[in-house]
Amino acid sequence: MLTQLINIIFNLESYLSPFLEHLGQSVYLILFILIFLETASLVFVFIPGQSFIFLASTLAASSTSGLNIWRLLLDFLLAAFFGNIVKYYIGQHFYRHRAIQSNAQSRFGRAQRLLNNHGEQIVIFGRFIPILGNLIPTIAGATKMNPLHYLFYTAIGVLVWVDVIAALGFFLGRLPIVHHNLTWFLLGFFIISALPSLIKTGWDHWKRPATEHN
């Protein structure tokens, strides 16, 4: 069993292609649901949305996968856009502005400060900030950001986020070295995506004792 699992991990593409062929057109619906859940709810933030976009776009570069990059792009754009709208209204109706303010040291507090200091720019580029980026739509709703402004800037943000990740995946997917080492490239992308968050968490952990000591 362990040998088979290792074989699957290190020969990922050879197993994924038949699996995608078996799923057929339903793969687009599955990917839509995954990205929508990750962007629409704080409960499903553990879903690696960026990694799914990257992996699917990388596979789309191969003719054997059967995936169409343009359908994937439409899928991801719609899922992320409507997911952000849902999260905005969750913030607007279920989170208290005062409660967020009173917890200034929390992730909500940091996300709110980012939104207050950078406004529309953080709505556009917030998705590239690990963990905190998932909170931006909720904070925008909780702080009653103008809905039309939010819709406009989140549409730009979704376009930038999806296009950058998908373009990177599709470009790398055209390189033979990537197909022969898909697992390593996917792992590297996941680590690079999570690195800023890990550094920030480590910095906060290292800094806290010094602050308490002073």
UniProtKB/TrEMBL annotation:
A GO-annotated cellular component: plasma membrane
Cellular compartment(s): Cell membrane
Chain segments annotated as transmembrane: 27-49, 69-90, 150-172, 178-199
Coiled coil (UniProt feature): none
Span of domain VTT: 48-169
Topology of the protein relative to the lipid bilayer: Multi-pass membrane protein
One Pfam family recorded for the sequence: VTT_dom
Keyword vocabulary terms for this entry: Cell membrane, Membrane, Transmembrane, Transmembrane helix
InterPro entries per record: DedA-like, VTT_dom
Domain of life: Bacteria
Family designation: Belongs to the DedA family.
Name used for this protein in its record: VTT domain-containing protein
Annotated source species: Loigolactobacillus backii
